[in-house]
Amino acid sequence: MISKFKAVVRWSTEECARRGLEPTTENRRAVLGRAVQLIRFPLMTVEEFAQSAAQSGLLTDREVVNLFLYFTVNPKPSIGFNDNPRCSVAGKELVVSRFQRIDGRWGYSGTPDRIKFTVDRKIYVVGFGLYGAIHGPHEYQCTIQIIHCGTGKVLAQNDTSFVCDGSSSTCRVSFREPVEITPGVTYIASACLKGMDSHYGTKGLRRIVHQSASGGVVTFQFTYAAGNNNGTSVEDGQIPEIIFYTNNS
């Protein structure tokens, strides 16, 4: 996200020079036109925004203030910038659900719920479906991650929040950008929630063959993630859904 933003700033400065204009905020905005509204500032972390976009001179003072408010308060103000994670134009979102039954209650004490998974073809993970509170509405603070199991490297992370309504329906929590998942490689899906007790899933499936309406097939294998996992396993726990797409789903 930062590299793309810096490329936009660089281009606007070069375009001003090509047109014989001073690279002021007004002139750079003028050469960019409506494209400014397409920059996904809300998908940056507050640290990334503070260190780059907020000091770039591309945004007005009011836009900088509104974006800082967007990062730090709820309900979030209207900001006029795209806050939807970028998704493949070729891929329709799909959901794999690993539990056959829902129960309650599941507690949280600062330890992430984690489960390992592998797939047999390339997919792109958009986010997770997570269980919410038994009694709602309730807001959770949440950190989701995808970790490469072999190296322990965190491939994607989003610190965010979501509001549930007290039903057993799952709540969508997305990464800032889709995460490419390589077939045959083991990954850890991780979600660390802060909030009241929630629903949880039981009768979990170890192997799921997911077939889309277009005929695409992806086989998921779920395995136990040893260590700090808040009790989540193949059989029961959190992270009931992985939201994903393929290039031809």
UniProtKB/TrEMBL annotation:
Domain of life assignment: Eukaryota
Matches recorded under Gene3D superfamilies: PHR domain
Any one biological process term the GO annotation gives: neurogenesis
InterPro entries (alphabetical): PHR, PHR_sf
Domain PHR: 97-245
One GO cellular component term: P-body
Pfam families: PHR
Name by which UniProt lists this protein: PHR domain-containing protein
Organism: Cylicostephanus goldi
